[in-house]
């Protein structure tokens, strides 16, 4: 009986979002062409990851990030990773209460990073016989699971 009471008391001190999703999230970064350098920094400028595409990066949910993808011969592309409310914090209303919300807030588990899949495509395009132009096509999955794209015209230096 006493053990059960202790277990129940401990469970109410842990946030539902933390139990289900923890305080970190995997974000995938890919590029076309592959093998581009990836640098992920917090919004404060601290480097959280350096590597090459394709990459899977485990990031703390409590921060926002800036992802820079670069490859020799192409202008670098930058994508911002923001935070939205993690829907699992609703579980605190059922079983965790205020202590659960506090735990989720302190650990960062109350946040969800978006986008969690980043694809940067560097491509050369020619328009009506004019000089070649370089574009970066930044792609991600939107909230409906559909691929969204933004073309960005680049200049060679």
Number of strands: 10
SS-based class: alpha+beta
Give the mean pLDDT. 76
Give me the CATH architecture, please: Sandwich
Gyration radius, rounded = 20 Å
Question: What would CATH call the class?
Answer: Mainly Beta
| Helix count from the secondary structure assignment | 3
Calculate the terminal CA-CA distance, rounded to whole Å: 72 Å
Strand order of the largest sheet: 4-1-8-9-10
Number of separate domains: 1
Beta strand %: over 45%
- Determine the CATH topology: Immunoglobulin-like
Largest sheet data: 5 strands, mixed
Share of helix among residues? Answer: 10-25%
Overall 3D shape: elongated
Order of helices and strands: HHEEEEEEHEEEE
Low-confidence stretches: 9-17, 125-129
SSE blueprint and pairings:
Layout: H1 2-12, H2 16-21, E1 24-32, E2 37-42, E3 47-52, E4 55-60, E5 65-70, E6 77-85, H3 91-107, E7 111-114, E8 117-125, E9 133-141, E10 147-154
Parallel strand pairs: 1-8
Antiparallel strand pairs: 1-4, 2-3, 2-5, 5-6, 6-7, 8-9, 9-10
């Amino acid at each position: 009986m006493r053990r059960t009471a202790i277990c129940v008391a401990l469970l109410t001190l842990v946030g539902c979002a933390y139990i289900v999703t923890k305080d970190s999230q995997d974000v995938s970064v890919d590029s076309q062409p592959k093998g581009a350098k990836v640098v992920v920094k917090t919004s404060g400028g601290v480097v959280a990851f350096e590597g090459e595409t394709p990459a899977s990066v485990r990031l703390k949910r409590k921060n926002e990030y800036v992802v820079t993808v670069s490859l020799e011969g192409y202008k670098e592309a930058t994508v911002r990773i923001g935070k939205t409310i993690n829907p699992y914090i609703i579980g605190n209303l059922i079983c965790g209460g205020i202590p659960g919300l506090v735990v989720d807030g302190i650990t960062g588990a109350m946040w969800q990073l978006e986008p969690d899949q980043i694809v940067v495509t560097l491509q050369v395009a020619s328009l009506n016989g004019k000089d070649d132009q370089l574009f970066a096509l930044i792609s991600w999955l939107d909230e409906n699971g559909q691929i969204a794209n933004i073309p960005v015209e680049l200049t060679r230096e």
